[in-house]
Amino acid sequence: MTDQRGEVVLRVMPRMADINSNGHIFGGWVLSQMDIAGGIIAARIAQGPVATVAIESMTFIAPILLGDIVSVYAHEERRGRTSVAIRIDVVATRGRQGREVGLTSGLFTFVALDENHRPRPLPPA
Q: What angle do CA 43, 46, 51 make, to 5 degrees?
């Protein structure tokens, strides 16, 4: 499924163990979901293994609550010789009415890796 935010790469529901002392989901939990989703898209583009090398920006817009269905959207924003920047947006479907709430957004950069775990050129677009 694709919309203006990109492709839905993951759709997950946080568990009780993911809650911090404020009753919200840990920021690290959503960061890991974003890294997984970005890595899936980057590996597809690189046609092989990739590694996260930077998180250029990330903004937390609203807290994630227990019971939210969390959707992680991703799309290629820019490409270099060996790296690709993936824009990742996270949205919650919340409550019985299924209201969508923007949660966070970030720009993650991944580098394509060769068999020696060194940067390698991306295949042509």
A: 55
pLDDT at 3: 64
Q: How confident is the model at residue 7 (pLDDT cuts 50, 70, 90)?
A: very high
Kindly tell me the burial class for residue 56, based on how many C-beta atoms sit within 10 Å of its own C-beta (0-12, 13-18, 19 or more). exposed
Structural Rg of the chain based on CA atoms? 15
Q: In this predicted model, what pLDDT tens digit does every residue of 54-68 receive, in sequence order?
A: 999 888 999 999 999
Tokens of 90: 């996270």
Please, what are the domains in the chain?
Answer: 2-112 (3.10.129.10)
